[in-house]
Amino acid sequence: MRILANDGISSDGKFILEAAGYTVSTEKVSQDLLARAINEDKYDILIIRSATQADEELLSSCPNLKLVVRAGVGLDNVDLLAAKEYGIKIRNTPAASSQSVAELVMGQMFALARGLHDSARNIGYDEFDYLKKKYSKGIELRGKTLGIIGFGRIGRSLAGYATGIGMDILPFDIEEAETTIEIDVLGTTHEFPCFVRNDLRGMLRYCDFVSVHIPKTENGDSVINATELGWMKDGVILVNAARGGVVNEDDLIDALESGKVAAAGLDVFEDEPNPNELLLKHRNILPTPHIGAATVEAQDRIGNELANLILEEFGNFTEK
What architecture is the 2-96+296-319 domain classified under in CATH? Predict the structure, then answer.
C-alpha cells in the first residue's frame, strides 16, 4: 500500500511502516494539486496534520483513498460527513501530544506571570529601567488557582504539572465527576483526588489563570465570548492552546484593553496561517505559531502511534 505523509512523519514512524511493506512518501504537495497527486500516484492512505485540509472537494475526488490519518488530536480540518459518504476511514492520534501541549501551556503561564513576552520583545538600553519598573510586581504560580476548561488527556496532563508546582486546580467539563490526577515523580506515580465541575460561571470567578482545552463546536461558534470573559476575575491570565476560534478573538482584545484579562497566551488562531495582526502585536499577548505538539518527543510518539494504527487497520505485508 502507498502512503502520502503530506505534512511529514517521524523517522521512526516511517521506518515502522516501510519495514512492514508500505511505501511512504513525505513529499509535500500543495492543497490545489493534492487530489491529482493522490490519484496519479495511487496513494491509499493520506497522513496529515493541521496544514492540509481533507475537505469534501478532496475526498470526493480520490476514489482510491481508503484512510486519512490526522497526526494529532483535532479533526476540524477533516470533513467527517464526506469521509463517511465516500467510505474513507478517519483516524487520529489523540494520546501522543498531551504532555507537550501541557508543557507549552505551563511555559506560557510562567512567561505571562512575569512579563517575559513583553520584556523580550522590547528590552534595550532605552527601555531597560522602564521595563524593570513595569514588571516589578510579577506573580508566582504557586498558590494560584488554575481553571482548566475541558478535562480530557491534555487537561489532565496540565493538571498534573500545575499540581506538582503547588497550584490549585479547578477542572470544568460537561459532566460533574470525582476523579484523580496522576503525577509521575522519578518513575513513581502519585494520585491526587479532584472534582470536575460542570458550572463554568461558578468555576471561573475563582481562577487566577484559565487554560482552554476543548474542541471547536460543530457550528464553529466560539465557546469563550464576552459573557464568559465577564465571569472571570479581574486581571485573569488566559491561555488557549486548543483551537483557534474557541475563544472569541474580538472579545478577548476588548477584555485585554479593559484590564479584565491581564494577559493571554495564544498558540492557536482563527485565521491560521494568517492570524489577525492585532493579536500578534498586542502588548499583552504571547503568540506562538501552533507549536503545542511540536516537540521531538511528541512527534516520535505520534509517528509510532499512527504507524501502529495503520498496521492494525491493514496489517503487515512482510508477514503475508
Answer: 3-Layer(aba) Sandwich (3.40)
Q: Which of 103, 127, 272, 297 is catalytic?
A: 272
List all residues 6 or more positions away from 161 whose beta carbon is below 8 Å from its beta carbon: 102, 103, 106
For 21-34, the pLDDT digits (tens) are 999 999 999 999 99
Tell me which of 243, 249, 301, 305 is the catalytic residue. Answer: 243
Is the dihedral angle over the CA atoms 299, 152, 99, 207 positive or is it negative? Answer: positive
Pick the catalytic residue: 91, 117, 213, 290?
Answer: 290
- pTM of the shown model: 0.87
Residue 312: exposure state from Cβ atoms within 10 A (0-12, 13-18, ≥19): exposed
Instruction: Note if 190 is an active site residue.
Output: no
Look up the CATH number of domain 98-287.
3.40.50.720
Supply the mean pLDDT for the chain: 93
Instruction: Tell me whether residue 290 is one of the annotated catalytic residues.
Output: yes
Active-site annotation holds for 117: no
CA 155 to CA 104: how far, in whole Å?
Answer: 12
Q: Using CA atoms, how far apart are residues 191 and 302, in angstroms rounded to an integer?
A: 26
pLDDT of 320 > 70? The answer is: no
